[in-house]
Amino acid sequence: MGQRVAAATLSCSAPEPPAPQGLRTPANPHGSDREPSRRPRSAASRALQGASFPPRPEGGARPRPRASGHDPGSTSPWRSRAEMAAAVAAAARGRLFSAARRRPWTFAERRAVGGAAGRASRPPRVWVPPARGLPSLCLGGSRWRSTQAAPQVVLNVPETRVTRLDNGLRVASEDSGLSTCTVGLWIDAGSRYENEKNNGTAHFLEHMAFKGTKKRSQLDLELEIENMGAHLNAYTSREQTVYYAKAFSKDLPRAVEILADIIQNSTLGEAEIERERGVILREMQEVETNLQEVVFDYLHATAYQNTALGRTILGPTENIKSINRKDLVDYITTHYKGPRIVLAAAGGVSHDELLELANFHFGDSLSTHKGEIPALPPCKFTGSEIRVRDDKMPLAHLAVAVEAVGWAHPDTICLMVANTLIGNWDRSFGGGMNLSSKLAQLTCHGNLCHSFQSFNTSYTDTGLWGIYMVCEPATIADMLHVVQKEWMRLCTSITESEVARAKNLLKTNMLLQLDGSTPICEDIGRQMLCYNRRIPIPELEARIDAVNAETIQEVCTKYIYDKSPALAAVGPIEQLPDFNQIRRNMCWLRD
Q1: Which residues contact 205 (CB under 8 A, 6 or more apart)?
Q2: CB distance 339 to 373 below 8 Å
Q3: In angstroms, how far is CA 475 from the centroid of its own chain?
Q4: CA distance linking residue 470 with residue 475, whole number of Å
């Protein structure tokens, strides 16, 4: 597999000392961010080698030196190549010692060597030719020697290879040479493709995938995974269903075969279906104890009223009790088709091997979709609210959001930076008033809430941008006022320094999330479904770097300023302001 290597260079901050007498400094010593083009070495570089080289032919090998001894006409200060090598080695050893370990000269010592005799006794300067794209360094007795090395940063980015099969299934992989791998199936089908009658089918089908196939019983499947030392998992979201396995790289063929078996040959037995009803109903009870999940379900329900995104992923209780085998089979035959599936892998995987496995296991079974792919149901955003008051609860949980954009929209990156500007905070954080987030400073200073977390949830053609917070009953109004005031500041007076900090934090968080084969595999599968390609990291960083304070103000004004929000609140919310007042505060707030 090929690799793409990009080189980035950083120049020294200290001024470059002059080159020694008779040596010519190469042109453009500091270069640029990019690797410079090949060019013949300068006269100084040839003098350093102790021999005179003719210019290198374009694209050819470097000629051998004509002489290995000292050339009387040469500008080199050394009499032989051995003397030159010893001087360069001594200079390099001097660079390895930190400034703390070098004893500075005393005033008497500096004065003793200050005259002509002292200058004659100083060691000669050693000019070290720079690597391509790096600044030249002058080492030796000069007091102006730079104490900051110029590091060369080389980024090795494994290539993400993508191949489309004849039936439309896409195979995407990244080979990082690890001893483990993650492989999975990302399917463009979730609860958004359901209606009121079959809402919950996608999640129900995810549960049934591990209950046995025509080739394996549930016990056989579990034992095979256990004996491999692997992990098999799945999850369902509003727009995607995912089945993935983590295993040793040598077990990639078995992992792909198991994934193909569970999505194509599940028995969907009546006994297993009845047993899973109880499991899912207990899962629904557990979800209801997670107030953050409850608030976000309410937020979707009010923001996307009477649409597919407004329904929950698990579905209502009456649907769970009535779903049968025919509903599951119909969902599979309608949505589990080649053009809507991505086979993604990361870690120690060979793309060619993965492609052969995909052709063998999916080439004939997932036939090309004969009919039209089901259209994405439109979901209209509505500014509204849901309030569930319960004064017995100790804390109020609420979320406020405005309509954002889909994954592929040009304004997505700006909204991601704005989301990072708001940030998140809870009482366990240190720093207090020294936190970088302005909202965190105000919250900590006024003790306005227990925690808050900004979010930017994107779907194919819409999204939600807002904040979730947990407050004391008496501080709800003040906290909401501060949040809306900070939103208005994003639209009017955000500074370049704040935007630069948020961009750095966003890039750091995005790179830290790609730690391991499983997050990388998930990133590949999700981006293939959303963008039909994987965006390279340098391109993503360039798009983030292009954001400035002016674009943040423009985009936030477009989506936040004077827009009707959606609000969901649960708990002791007596002090929560009226929705009309909240709507009025989406304009400029004056102190």
Answers
A1: 241, 328, 331, 332
A2: yes
A3: 35
A4: 10
For the chain, give the longest Cα–Cα distance. Answer: 101
Residue 359 token pair: 């052709």
Report the distance separating Cα 514 and Cα 329, nearest Å. Answer: 35
Cβ 382 vs Cβ 457: under 8 Å: no
Measured distance CA(401)–CA(453) in Å, rounded: 12
Cα 198 to the center of its chain, rounded Å: 34
Q: Does residue 568 sit in helix, strand or coil?
A: strand
- Enumerate helices (H) and strands (E) in the chain, giving the number of each: 20, 16
Strand 385-389 relative to strand 566-571: parallel, antiparallel, unpaired?
parallel
This model's pTM is above 0.85: no
Instruction: Please name the residue that has the structure tokens 């609210």.
Output: 385
Residue 510 CB coordination number (10 Å): 15
The residue from 174, 206, 239, 276 that is catalytic is 206
Residues whose CB falls within 8 Å of the CB of residue 437, separated by 6 or more in sequence, listed in order:
421, 422, 423, 424, 425
206 is catalytic: yes
pLDDT digits (tens, 9 = 90+) for 415-472: 999 999 999 998 888 776 778 888 998 998 888 999 999 999 999 999 999 999 999 9
Residue 232's beta-bridge partner residues? 245
CA dihedral sign, ordered 299, 302, 308, 313: positive
Q: Which residues contact 576 (CB under 8 A, 6 or more apart)?
A: 387, 396, 398, 476, 477, 480, 569
Give the tokens for residue 4: 């793409």
Tokens describing residue 277: 């009803």
Q: Give pLDDT, residue 573.
A: 96
- Percentage of the chain beyond pLDDT 90 is 64
In angstroms, the CA 540 to CA 411 distance is 13
DSSP 3-state of 2: coil
